[in-house]
Design goal:
By secondary structure, the protein is an all-alpha fold. The protein is about 60% helix and about 0% strand. The protein is globular.
Length: about 60
C-alpha cells in the first residue's frame, strides 16, 4: 500500500464501521457526518464512497 493511501484506508475502514453502527437516531450517516468525523471535504467523502462502491462492491439497499 502506498504511503499516501493510508489515510484513505483508515477513513474507509471507519466509514464502514460508522455505517454498520448507524447514527444515534438509527439512520445511516450522511456526507456531513463523514465530513465532521474526518475533517475532509465533501468531494473527498464522495471519492471514498465511490471507491467503496466500485472497488469493494459495497452497495446500499433502497
Amino acid at each position: 500500500m502506498k504511503a499516501g493511501s493510508r489515510p484513505q484506508y483508515y477513513r474507509i475502514r471507519r466509514m464502514v464501521q460508522m455505517v454498520r453502527e448507524g447514527s444515534g437516531g438509527g439512520e445511516p450517516p450522511n456526507s456531513s457526518d463523514f465530513m465532521a468525523e474526518f475533517g475532509v471535504s465533501r468531494r473527498t467523502v464522495a471519492r471514498d464512497l465511490d471507491f467503496l462502491r466500485d472497488e469493494e462492491r459495497a452497495q446500499h439497499d433502497y
